[in-house]
TrEMBL record:
Organism of this sequence: Levilactobacillus spicheri
Native organism taxonomy: Bacteria, Bacillati, Bacillota, Bacilli, Lactobacillales
Protein name (Swiss-Prot/TrEMBL): TetR family transcriptional regulator
PANTHER family per UniProt: ACREF/ENVCD OPERON REPRESSOR-RELATED, ACREF_ENVCD OPERON REPRESSOR-RELATED
Ranges for domain HTH tetR-type: 12-72
PROSITE patterns to which the protein is assigned, alphabetical: HTH_TETR_2
Length: 194
């Protein structure tokens, strides 16, 4: 019994070490330049150990992104759309601001290796939030796409701008600005589609 507990603890330490090294490398260089050899050295494991848990770096990146997505979805699980859009915007910015530089690098990239994985996370979040909205589901498919693109791009662009500007503006001010833009746009749009 204790052997399993010890093994579980060792596995947890190894995974944490891999994650920490991976996040550090994400902050230091472009994803395409990260190697398993370098990650293993930084995590203080051998390459075989890495491959025991992850077939490729892409699998590790997908798992990391899935964890970010799940944690955010857990925070907003009780929100209803569009009614709770302001709470959702605040949750997105507060959550994102607390995740660290690796999260920011993945989330704010506009070209390169992280765009696809970031889009998968966004699609997952949008499906599990807006996809549950009766008002949203009454829209035609093209109208749904317009609404989701607006919400996604507005929130992401405001967050990206805030990060690029060094997070100088108070987070509360950024949340208010993003909420005004998004809530105003969504409200107007839904009224027009009735």
């Amino acid at each position: 019994m204790q052997v399993n507990d010890y093994q579980d603890l060792r596995v947890q330490r190894t995974i944490t070490s891999i994650y920490d090294a991976f996040k550090q490398l994400i902050c230091e260089k472009d994803y395409s330049k990260i190697t398993v050899t370098e990650l293993a050295r930084l995590a203080r494991i051998n390459k075989k150990t890495f491959y025991r848990y992850y077939p490729t770096l892409d699998d590790l990146l997908r798992e990391l992104q899935a964890q970010y997505s799940k944690a955010y979805l857990d925070e907003i699980a009780d929100l209803r759309y569009p009614r709770d859009l302001a709470k959702s915007v605040a949750a997105f910015f507060t959550y994102s601001a607390s995740q660290g530089e690796a999260y920011d690098r993945i989330t704010t990239c506009t070209v390169g290796s992280y765009v696809g994985i970031r889009q998968q996370m966004i699609n997952d979040v949008m499906t599990k939030t807006w996809g549950q909205s009766p008002e949203f589901n009454q829209l035609a498919d093209w109208q749904k796409q317009i609404l989701l693109n607006f919400v996604e791009q507005t929130g992401l662009k405001v967050y990206t701008t805030w990060v690029a500007n060094g997070r100088v503006e108070p987070l509360a001010d950024v949340i208010r600005a993003a909420t005004a833009l998004m809530q105003g746009g969504v409200t107007q749009y839904l009224n027009l589609t009735k």
